[in-house]
Amino acid sequence: MATITLSYDARNIIAKKTIAYILSLGVFKKIEKTAIDLSLEDVKKGRVTTYKSTSDLFNKVLG
Predict the structure, then answer these.
(1) This protein's superkingdom (predicted)?
(2) Which terminus of the chain is more exposed, N or C, with fewer CB under 10 A?
(3) Residues 6+ apart with CB under 8 A from 12
(4) Distance from CA of residue 34 to its chain's centroid?
């Protein structure tokens, strides 16, 4: 089985409708990323913040 990865502007209505139509044909299926895959992607892109202690975290969050 081959894998196709699409990149498109999600704000483009024509692109969204085209993808929805292709998926509605039943030939293709959309594979959702698992929570661990999304988390690993966040780590790779640097969207993770670390704190030395819980008090540092609460000071940052609560101001």
Answers:
(1) Bacteria
(2) N
(3) none
(4) 9
The answer to whether the predicted template modeling score (pTM) of the entire model surpasses 0.90 is no
Contacts of 29 (CB under 8 A, 6+ apart): 23
Quote the Cα angle for 10-11-13, to 5°.
95
Alpha helices in 4-53 (DSSP H): 13-24, 35-44
Amino acid at 18: T
How far apart CA 6 and CA 15 sit, in angstroms, is 11
Q: What is the DSSP letter of 6?
A: -
